Amino acid sequence: MEFDVVVVGGGLGGLAAAALLAKKGLKVHLIEQHDKVGGYATNYKRKKYRMEVAIHVLDGDHEFNLRNEIFDRLDVRENVEFVKLPEFYTCHFDGQKISVPDHFEQAKEKLSAIFPHQKESLASFFQLMWDVNKSMHASTVREPLIAPSNPLFAIFYPELEKYWTVSVGAYIDRLFQDNLLKVVLLANSTFYHDNPHELNILQFMASQASYFLGGVYYVKGGSQVYSNYLAKVITDNGGTISLNHRVEKIHVENSQVQEVFYRKTRGEEKEILKSVKAKHFVMNAPIPLVYQLIDQHPNQEYVNEIKEFKHSTSATTLFYGLKRPLKDFGNESHLNIFVDARMNMMDFSTFQQSVGIVDYDIVNTGLCSPGIYSCDLIYMDRLSEWNSLSPEGYKHKKKIVSDFYTRKLNSYFPGVTEAIDLFEVGTPKTMVRYTSNPSGSAYGFSPEFTEHRKRLLFWKEEAGTSDRYIRNLHFGSAWSYFPGFSGAQIAGSRAAKEILKQEGIPW
Hints:
Layout: E1 2-8, H1 12-23, E2 28-31, E3 43-46, E4 49-52, E5 58-59, H2 68-73, H3 76-79, E6 82-84, E7 89-93, E8 96-100, H4 104-114, H5 119-141, H6 153-156, H7 158-163, H8 168-175, H9 179-186, H10 201-214, E9 216-219, H11 223-236, E10 240-242, E11 245-253, E12 256-264, E13 274-283, H12 287-293, H13 300-307, E14 314-322, E15 335-339, E16 355-359, E17 373-381, H14 391-412, E18 420-426, H15 428-435, H16 449-459, E19 473-475, H17 484-503
Parallel strand pairs: 1-2, 1-13, 2-10, 7-15, 13-19
Antiparallel strand pairs: 3-4, 5-9, 6-9, 7-8, 11-12, 12-13, 14-17, 14-18, 15-16, 16-17
Helix pairs in contact: 1-11, 1-17, 4-5, 5-10
């Protein structure tokens, strides 16, 4: 069967692209290797507990959020409920606790009151965040696009040009003297990368600004509710979805993808190799994997350059089912970030010892049924820490990790171990198994400032949306834009726009 568009991968970017194109009347088919759609935006059940895989918070609407038009076009707000969270995050460090509001002015005022000697520096910090977010929005929506490789880019976007090669750690070190304030501002940088002195300041500022401008929310009932809604939009508009199917080959001929070959991942039909043709192909699958699956690319040098791009860090998550809510043990926040007080307070080159704890019951998120409670503990990790282990060694290390971090959880919230009914450990290997992201990458390509700049110069005018030499091959994932709930969907919408443009269909 032939389609207008085949989407490979049912993560948020693939779902957004497929839903937008299906609503425009295109014949769309989506292929997903898992038994459910969503990618990192999924939930799973263990006994009576529902666990959130990876979407801990999401940003709200604001004037610079490109995700707004996706919500508008797909009637998201009328069909999916979002729960407002009480604050952005709470930072715990060296016996002190500071909650950061999810509003520009409120955050600036609160931190200025706590750190009055750094008031001017805080004003500069938040002003840069605003300027970067505004410039990045302008550079993305401008038509025709002015790519960073274009000499005009520095003229149109001097703020972006100035900070391409600056890490957020270096900027914060230069601007602030108070170590506690540095920790508070950098606390959730570990959700992007494990070393703020490598983390690209532009990605950090743009991502943070979206929370400070739009507020912080969670999907009522869990992220799977949102993913399932996008899948419903696809099928309600004539699209089809194949779950439990994995693409094995992308056939390219005459500089066009002609068809993809795929098969079921389980069941009696596992031995049957299927194929599907289309005019356009959207890859929500990881970009490095896409180039492994292509049988013959017109420009191997181009492919080799992409293979050299570094991947982002991964993460390990401990999922807890609790007999009692975490607030019974002193918690007051949805998202807590504990930066280990044993760190040398003068050395902020790494935050690898920080731990994030998400309490889904501090407000009524609806993740679990009433009277059933859960929380996640997350820390940044690397696949290399797990990949060479034998099956016995892997199981043993999971036991060591679970014991160590459960003791940490109990040190943060004394007595909570008595309320633990069940727990599971998801490692970088788990992330590879369920999403096929190489390196167990949580965010696609590395957000290091050196890498980010190199990629933007490489992509040129296609800006990561399409392959330069295969024009019906489009990308819609965190690997081709920014990561996270909004970034992945915006990547999908960019791919959809390019396809509509090539088809002569108004956006």
